[in-house]
Design goal:
The complex is a heterotrimer.
Chain A: H1 3-30, H2 47-54, H3 56-89, H4 96-108, H5 111-129, H6 137-161, H7 165-173, H8 178-189, H9 191-207, H10 210-215, H11 223-231, H12 237-276
Helix pairs in contact in A: 1-12, 2-12, 3-6, 3-9, 3-11, 4-6, 6-9, 7-8
Chain B: H1 4-15, E1 29-38, E2 41-51, E3 56-60, H2 67-75, E4 82-87, E5 90-91, E6 102-105, H3 117-127, H4 132-145, H5 161-173, E7 179-183, H6 191-208, E8 211-216, H7 219-225, E9 228-233, E10 236-241, H8 243-248, H9 253-258, E11 263-272, E12 277-281, E13 286-290, E14 301-306, E15 311-314, E16 325-335, E17 339-346, E18 351-357, E19 372-377, E20 383-385
Parallel strand pairs in B: 3-8, 3-9, 6-7, 7-8
Antiparallel strand pairs in B: 1-2, 1-4, 4-5, 9-10, 11-12, 11-14, 12-13, 14-20, 15-19, 16-17, 16-19, 17-18
Helix pairs in contact in B: 3-4, 3-5, 4-5
Chain C: H1 8-47, E1 62-64, E2 69-71, H2 76-83, H3 85-118, H4 121-136, H5 139-150, H6 155-162, H7 176-201, H8 204-212, H9 217-228, H10 230-245, H11 249-253, H12 262-272, H13 276-305
The chains are: A mainly alpha, B alpha+beta, C mainly alpha.
Subcellular location (chain C): Cell membrane
Protein name (chain C): Spermidine/putrescine ABC transporter permease
InterPro entries (chain C): MetI-like (IPR000515), MetI-like_sf (IPR035906)
């Protein structure tokens, strides 16, 4: 009945995934190319990886990025979690519309605008209160925290709105105070969302070029900024090697995370099945 | 309905009220050795079934028994793995759902949320390219039939459950399908509304003369509405018959249990004559006398099915008969208003359920907890089951 | 209530119950207010200033002069934007490129999202993960990957010339086509995910009902599936369109010197010309154009997450 349709959908999926993955695959393949030219395969070699690890500026930039990522993701969690909680559990309050606007807008705001506006804020603040003095890691962390917090808020909010409020009400009914409910009931329930939010923030921070470029100062060059300045000139095999490392690291992380999630879900499903004796 | 054909159909309906008993009767819908597998799971297993014109046929069973799969194969949403399905003599293999002479009322009603009531009902007619004026007229007629004319411009989310159900019915009937398929048509309604709607559905069916095939898990609903019922379990039809036949002459413990309440007593056939049979039962602690031949080998295990309302309780051992009379103690009483049910623990430990109508208002309950009673029944009330 | 003096802990608990709510709202509110909203006001302010060779390189808007505030609003930046065709064409270009890319992304993303939504259990999870995975890997690297493919000496030209289909290398990189490819490629997951979630939530029996009522499959898709997936189409399109208008990296790396986009213009004004007021007015002008789609995005975002509606 739907043979033609499934053939169409199948080819759309195949084309789409080829489109998504072939370029990445090519980067990985050519990172092992002996020669410097993209189009000519000169034999297998890992020399570009060796080059990469000898590039001190690149390594420094990578450390900067990792440190910024860790700090921004953690701060974003601290600010985004209450924001998500407020959006899904606090009902109406004065200024809610503006609040939800400030959470939704960073998700789509063009980076150049966010970057410019934050830089101007930092300059103004320095003039008025003397802090932050100059620009560097601190300003990058603040900037990244701001847009990452919006992502965390959305992740937490969608997890919470998929959850039954009666669990929290039951805790309240049994005599738990609001703060206690949050730490004993709500927090454990949204833990997967918090982990996802943190990971998302970390990678977004690691990935950001435009905003960092605006608010960075001397000595706070991040990895994307370094990469950008070298790829502006064209393809570089060293960057291929770096790209491969990043792609592999992130893929492994994501695959492990999703296998863990899937396994715990399957285990839970099996347990429910055993407990109730109902076959799936 | 102004169509002449429909009026003719309705007359035929009156002439042969039980076409399934007519050897010359031509089935309108025919399942021929139909099997449906999902992976290794047999959802429907070698089912053959005939449904006649103008019937209100119910497929009855618990969840996962294959009744919905059978209905969906009729609608064309699933293809049988094996076997054939005929509607009005036409093989339905390779006929897509949108060309079948069937329409379906979905369990969820599946009303298009972005269309008004009117548009929903008109949808099917639009597909067949009727003129605007005709569509308008037929939609109006149909909405009047289900008493929803007032709500024609509303969107589905502005309607109550009962109103949605009526719109769904109107939408599936407006194309005058040869067969209307109903998937748990009243499942989403509350009890009071359900009872009322049951009769309305039957009235509409009688008015239009359309063949209805209905899926339900609610035995009461099936009994009230259907001309015939097929009881299904694990992809197999256990028994087909009128509500009366199924209730009074179940062919298996499954059917007996599924329709109404029943006491099942296990025993061994010890004597089988032309006119009577005796079943020795350790379950109940004695012999059970049956007033007809059982036609089984002596020594086979059988079950005697007794409906609670066919049993009688008495405080004294009845004198006129020694047959089918067992002593016990009242353990539980359930007062249901119209009747009371008593759970009697026999000396063997077997619990028997007896229900008695409460015919008078001022009478105290006749029995109370721990009363010594005798359970007895008329010999004709028992049915004997061999499976 | 009672005469017994409450302990410190009880006092704290009571205080928390009364003020905890404000505290929980306050922290994210203040942060976002200070670091998201206030900056825009500052950008607005500076867009009315004049450029100066100073630190910071713009004039003050408010000056305390003799017991009064002297406000020096300078509309010159905006007039300059309007008078110079470079800015106008950069705007129109950005909108055109973003719009065309959004449509292409939708055309590629819709069948994919539909296919994933129709797939069964474990396959569906796998496909979904395959869509999300590139989204987690570096944006910059994904854009970079196309340089090697589209370049004059890139893989496409090498392949085509190797097969003797063309004799002269095609110029793909440094054209608008390359920018389209880059945007579609990097933003495709943003289109697929919201589409998938509306398509997946859709009641399958609606489509069956349409078929049952005599509707042919393609028509059922057009009259039922498509209109019902409109929220997903809108959300996905806005998620692609809005950031694409202000995109900097893709036109910079894949586009040619003639591919003017407003994000790139802003970057150049700021980093190359060091004209902060002009950069600010470019940002404000972009924001004015984007404010309607952004508010609309927020509206539908709120609608999908509010279970009450």
């Amino acid at each position: 009945m739907n043979g033609k349709r499934s053939i169409f959908l199948m080819s759309a999926l195949c084309f789409g995934f080829a489109f998504l993955y072939v370029p990445i695959m090519l980067v990985i393949i050519y990172s092992f190319n002996e020669g410097k030219l993209v189009t000519v395969w000169a034999g297998f070699s890992t020399k570009w990886y060796v080059e990469l690890f000898r590039d001190d500026a690149m390594i420094d930039a990578a450390w900067n990025s990792l440190r910024i990522g860790l700090m921004s993701a953690t701060l974003a969690l601290a600010i985004g979690t209450p924001a998500g909680l407020v959006m899904s559990r606090f009902g109406r309050f004065r200024g809610r519309t503006m609040f939800s606007g400030m959470i939704a807008a960073p998700l789509v705001m063009p980076d150049v605008i966010t970057g410019l506006s934050l830089l101007l804020l930092f300059v103004t603040m320095e003039q008025l209160v003397g802090w932050p003095a100059g620009r560097g890691m601190t300003t990058i962390v603040i900037a990244h925290t701001t847009f990452c917090a919006a992502y965390v808020a959305v992740v937490v909010q969608s997890r919470l709105s998929g959850m039954d409020t009666s669990i929290e009400e039951a805790a309240m009914d049994l005599g738990a105070k609001p703060t206690k409910i949050f730490f004993l009931i709500t927090l454990p329930m949204i833990l997967p969302a918090l982990m996802a939010g943190w990971l998302l923030s970390f990678t977004l921070s690691l990935d950001d070029l435009v905003i960092s470029s605006f608010v960075a100062g001397p000595g706070s060059t991040t990895l994307p900024m370094k990469v950008f300045s070298s790829v502006r000139l064209g393809v570089s095999p060293e960057i291929n090697a770096l790209a491969t490392l990043i792609i592999i690291a992130i893929s492994v992380l994501i695959i492990i995370a999703s296998i863990l999630v899937m396994r715990s879900e399957r285990q839970r499903a099996r347990q429910v099945q055993e407990d109730t004796g109902i076959p799936g | 309905m102004s169509q002449g054909a429909n009026q003719q159909d309705a007359q035929i309906c009156v002439q042969t009220s039980q076409p399934w008993n007519d050897p010359d009767g031509v089935p309108f819908i025919r399942f021929e050795k139909v099997t449906k597998k999902f992976g290794d799971f047999y959802a429907v297993d070698d089912v053959s079934l005939d449904i006649y014109r103008h019937e209100l046929f119910a497929l009855l069973g618990g969840s996962g028994c294959g009744k919905t799969t059978l209905l969906r194969m009729l609608a064309g949403f699933e293809d049988p793995t094996e076997g054939k399905i005929y509607i009005d003599g036409v093989d339905m293999a390779n006929v897509p759902p949108y060309e079948r002479p069937t329409n379906m009322m979905f369990q969820s009603y599946a009303l298009f949320p972005h269309m008004s009531v009117e548009k929903n009902v008109a949808f099917g007619l639009h597909q067949d390219g009727y003129s605007k004026s005709e569509i308008k007229e037929r939609v109006a007629d149909m909405l009047a039939l289900v008493q929803m004319s007032k709500f024609a411009t509303r969107k589905p989310h502005q309607l109550s459950g009962g109103q949605r159900q009526r719109v769904a019915l109107a939408r599936s009937l407006v194309k005058q399908p040869k067969v209307l398929l109903l998937d748990e048509p009243l499942g989403a309604l509350d009890k009071k509304l359900r009872e009322q709607t049951q009769f309305e559905l039957v009235n509409i069916q009688e008015k239009l003369g359309t063949t209805f095939v209905m899926v339900t898990h609610d035995q009461e609903e099936a009994m009230t509405m259907a001309s015939r019922i097929a009881v299904m379990n694990e992809g197999v039809i256990k028994q087909i018959g009128t509500p009366f036949e199924l209730y009074e002459y179940p062919n298996s413990r499954f059917t007996a249990n599924f329709l109404g309440q029943v006491n099942l007593i296990e025993g061994t056939l010890v004597d089988d004559d032309e006119k009577y049979a005796i079943i020795q039962s350790d379950d109940i602690g004695g012999e059970i006398y049956i007033d007809h031949a059982v036609q089984g080998h002596e020594g086979t295990t059988l079950w005697v099915a007794l409906r609670p309302e066919r049993l009688r309780l008495c405080t004294e051992k009845p004198e006129n008969t020694t047959r089918n009379c067992f002593a016990g103690k009242v353990e539980d009483i359930g007062y249901l208003g119209g009747l009371s049910t008593y759970h009697v623990r026999l000396e063997t430990g077997k619990r028997i359920r007896v229900s008695e109508p409460n015919t008078h208002r001022h009478n105290e309950p006749r029995y109370t907890w721990d009363d010594q009673v005798w359970v007895t029944w008329e010999t004709g009330s028992a049915s004997v089951l061999n499976q | 209530m009672s005469d017994i003096k409450p302990t410190l802990k009880q006092r704290f608990d009571r205080w928390m119950i009364r003020h905890g709510r404000v505290l929980v709202i306050g922290l994210p509110y203040l942060w976002l207010f200070l670091f998201f909203l206030v900056p825009f006001l500052i950008v607005l302010k500076i867009s009315f200033a004049t450029a100066q060779y100073a630190q910071p390189p713009y004039s003050a808007l408010f000056q305390w002069v003799d017991e009064g505030v002297n406000i020096a609003i300078n509309f010159g930046n905006y007039l300059f934007l309007l008078s110079d065709s470079l800015y106008i064409s950069a705007y129109l270009n950005s909108i055109r490129i973003a719009a065309i890319s959004t449509v292409i992304t939708l055309l590629i993303g819709y069948p994919m999202a539909y296919g994933i939504a129709r797939a069964k259990g474990s396959t569906r999870n796998l496909l979904l993960m395959l869509v999300i995975l590139p989204f987690w890997t570096s944006f910059l690297i994904r854009v970079y990957a196309w340089i090697g493919i589209l370049d004059r000496e890139g893989l496409i030209n090498a392949a085509l010339m190797g097969l003797h289909i063309i004799s002269e290398p095609l110029i793909i990189r440094q054209t608008e086509v390359a920018v389209y490819i880059g945007i579609v490629y990097t933003y495709l997951p943003f289109m697929i995910l919201p589409l998938y979630s509306t398509l997946e939530k859709m009641d399958g029996s609606l489509l069956e009902a349409a078929l049952d009522l005599g509707c042919k499959p393609w028509k059922a898709f057009a009259t039922i599936t498509l209109p019902l997936s409109l929220p997903g189409i809108l959300a996905g399109s806005l998620l692609v369109f809005i950031p694409a208008v202000g995109e900097f990296v893709i036109p910079e790396l894949l586009g040619g010197p003639n591919t003017l986009m407003i994000g790139r213009t802003l970057w150049n004004e700021f980093f190359s010309n060091r004209d902060w007021p002009i950069a600010s007015s470019v940002a404000i002008a972009m924001l004015i154009f984007l404010v309607v789609p952004i508010m609309y995005f927020q509206h539908i975002q709120g609608k999908t997450e509010d279970p009450g509606k």
